[in-house]
Specification:
alpha/beta; 7-stranded mixed sheet; 41% helix; nucleotide-binding; 11 strands; 2 domains; magnesium; Rossmann fold
């Protein structure tokens, strides 16, 4: 069998480990070959690819990024199912493993409905895909954010400042919640929970009253109580979604005005996506890659690899895409006990 692999959407620690796991599992199962499409769906529509042999994947599990390249390319604006099917026929590709998040898997679902044999692997540092307990990349992003906040706290302590750390999280505040709790944040602001400036100011002043330099963690998709939409000044991506970022800089002067405490903001941005994956993410990504190949060889299609507890299974694309996995109110309530 000849299997195609692509990585699409935002890059993520662990992508290379998935590729390696998928390929090695195929080699162990028999005379199967693999091709990697360059730059995500762009390669699937143009046919640009590379052969994934043992030499190509040697030692890549610990590397960040993706050896295949990635993009936010929409295949349905560029030939769609027919274009992809024609390229697969030219290359002798029998099935596709699509590694990506919500946008990538939605495209994979549409291609599957068009008759292409496709299986998905869930990738997002936001951990917001339904149908799986965790996505690879999340653990690394949380660790990077926590390390950054530990550093922000030392400079905040030195100058008696309030520090605002903005992390990724378009619709779900999992990174903010986990890294904020780990770093001992005095306030965590997430898209799922409307929070007033008065509440934020109270948490900040309470922390200062106890002799602490306040740390506020905010997800990029957080919507202040006086706003209707997340802060976005960067236009739209290829799938028509606003490019978020900058809410931390917007909140900092408001916090300073309300509390009288000098406040500085730092946006971590793509630092959270970069670098080598954590040990947890290397193992999870490798297992997911192997599970994807096993599912393809069993003839499964239009499904996504899923982590349930410590076991791997597959679920229909619809289970992952019908709605996002957001932070439940009870999980936020746990963290809120620690605020102020």
């Amino acid at each position: 069998m000849r299997i195609g692999i692509l990585t699409s959407g935002g890059d993520c620690p662990g992508l290379n480990a998935v590729i390696r796991g998928a390929v090695l599992r195929g080699f162990a199962a028999g005379d199967h070959t693999f091709v990697g499409f360059r730059d995500g769906w762009r390669g699937a529509t143009t046919g640009e690819h590379l052969v994934l042999d043992r030499e190509r994947i040697r030692g890549i599990a610990k590397q960040g990024g993706t050896i295949l390249g990635s993009s936010r390319f929409n295949p349905f604006d560029n030939g769609g199912v027919e274009r992809v099917r024609a390229n697969f026929a030219d290359l002798g590709v029998d099935a596709l493993i699509a590694i990506g998040g919500e946008g990538t898997l939605a495209a994979a679902q549409r291609l599957g409905e068009g008759g292409i044999h496709v299986l998905g692997v869930p990738k997002t540092i936001d951990n917001d895909l339904n149908g799986t307990d965790y996505t690879f990349g999340f653990d690394t992003a949380v660790q990077i954010a926590t390390d950054a906040m530990d550093r922000l706290r030392t400079t905040g302590d030195s100058h008696g400042r309030c520090m605002v750390a903005e992390v990724m999280g378009r619709h779900a505040g999992w990174i903010a919640l986990h890294s904020g709790m780990a770093a001992g944040a005095h306030a965590i602001l997430i898209p799922e929970r409307r929070t007033t400036m008065d509440e934020i100011a109270t948490w900040v002043t309470d922390a200062r009253a106890r002799g602490k330099a306040p740390l506020v963690v905010v997800a990029e998709g957080f919507i202040p109580d006086q706003a209707d939409d997340p802060h976005s000044e960067r236009g739209l991506d290829a799938f028509g979604r606003p490019r978020l970022g900058g809410i931390g800089e917007r909140l900092a002067p408001q916090i300073e005005a309300l509390t009288g405490i000098e406040t500085r903001a730092t946006t971590l941005g793509h630092i959270q996506r970069g670098g080598i994956p954590s040990a947890f993410d290397r193992v999870l990504a490798t297992r997911m890659g192997m599970a994807a190949t096993e599912a393809v060889l069993r003839g499964e299609r239009d499904r996504m690899v899923s982590l349930r507890g410590t076991d791997l299974t597959t679920v229909p694309f619809a289970d992952a895409l019908d709605e996002l996995k957001t932070v439940p109110a009870e999980r936020y309530a746990e963290a809120e006990i620690l605020f102020g």
